[in-house]
Amino acid sequence: MHTHVEADHHGHLSLDQELMDASAAYFRGEHNRTPTVDDLAAYYRARDMAAVIFTVDAGTGLDHPPLSSEEIVERAAAHNDVLIPFGSVDPRRGEAAVRQARRLVEEYGVKGFKFHPGLQAFAPDDPEFRPLWAALEELGTVALFHTGQTGIGAGLPGGRGIKLRYSDPLLLDDVAAEFPGLTIVMAHPAVPWVDTQISVATHKANVYIDLSGWSPKYFPPQLVRQLNGPLRHKVLFGSDFPVITPDRWFADLAKLEIKDEVKPLLLKENALRLLGLRTEETA
Question: Residues of 94-109 as b/e, b for ≥16 C-beta within 10 angstroms?
């Protein structure tokens, strides 16, 4: 449920070089850190897996030209056996963002959108953004929000101006309450607000959690208890590739005490239901 396209086929990167280097230093790893759509397709096809892919349009917040969501969707069409493209729009572009979101759904068929409040420099509960959430609710799409700490900007002076408070999951409680028909996914164990995240997901039927961005061996114990119990139908597998590989994520998950009946829900069933992909063949 959480895979990043970090480069387009013209060599343009999703982040400027300073942020890309800081992210690489934070997460470490020897694999390709700037995969294209085609790279991701080959990677996941080799593992007999499917992946939700996206970029983050933070053109205003980072003053860096974003990758094109339209191009990502178009290139992913050749790999629809393994790739499910989401779009991304810059909320700070106001009505233009709403128009782009509608076009991505109605003309390109995207099933959801990725937002990163820290990089995009906006508070999701600000009334300014209600028209966007209303449009996504009307369109029946998923809104996936980064929550918690971010490795982007980590270790740089002032974190390059990226403010962590925008990714407090409590800000999404207002959005979920005011737009109950909007399906919201809180991306990542939301350190340091995991208890808040659990509370929001428990209270709001339209809110889910993806478990990307952290190796399972670092999952807070209260989150493990919840995914084994009350939240078993609300948790979704994600790795955050290319910063964490699914190979590493699975290897570390095997060391946790996850109930056998929870594993298929976490790894596949919940995502199929969330994305509307459950068919007789997948039942």
Answer: eeebbebbeebbeebe
220 touches 194 (CB < 8 A): yes
Tens digit of each residue's pLDDT, the chain (283 residues)? 999 999 998 889 998 889 888 777 777 766 778 999 999 999 999 999 999 999 999 999 999 999 999 999 999 999 999 999 999 999 999 999 999 999 999 999 999 999 999 999 999 999 999 999 999 999 999 999 999 999 999 999 999 999 999 999 999 999 999 999 999 999 999 999 999 999 999 999 999 999 999 999 999 999 999 999 999 999 999 999 999 999 999 999 999 999 999 999 999 999 999 999 975 444 4
- Closest Cα partner for 84 from 250, 238, 243, 188? 238
Strands 112-115 and 83-85: unpaired
Measured from the Cβ of residue 84, the count of other Cβ atoms closer than 10 Å reads 20
CA R_g for the chain: 17
- Count other C-beta atoms under 10 Å from residue 234's C-beta: 22
Q: Which pTM was predicted?
A: 0.95
Residue that has been written with the tokens 């790894």 in this structure? 267
